[in-house]
């Protein structure tokens, strides 16, 4: 199950996941696995992603 809130925020802000990954400083394949919830992002990844997307961590990743 995809993280729809994260996917929508990425597309709205950066148009593509590839551009977002470059902005976040992570590999595109890792971001893809985060969006599809195959891997859990680290606390630092959550912080950077939320900051760059101007959203809260809870809004993007839940509790």
Describe this structure in words.
The protein has 63 residues and is mostly helical. It is built from 5 helices and no strands.
Summary keywords:
63 residues; mainly alpha
Strand percentage lies at: under 5%
Largest sheet: none
Q: Calculate the terminal CA-CA distance, rounded to whole Å.
A: 17 Å
The number of distinct β-strands equals 0
Q: Which structural category fits the helices and strands?
A: mainly alpha
> Helix count, per DSSP?
5
| Computed Rg | 10 Å
Helical coverage, percent range: 55-70%
Average pLDDT level: 96
Molecular shape = globular
What is the chains' assembly state? single chain
Poorly predicted regions:
none
Order of helices and strands: HHHHH
Q: How are the SSEs ordered, and which strands pair?
A:
Blueprint: H1 4-14, H2 17-24, H3 28-35, H4 43-53, H5 57-61
Give me a quick take on this structure:
By secondary structure, this protein is mainly α.
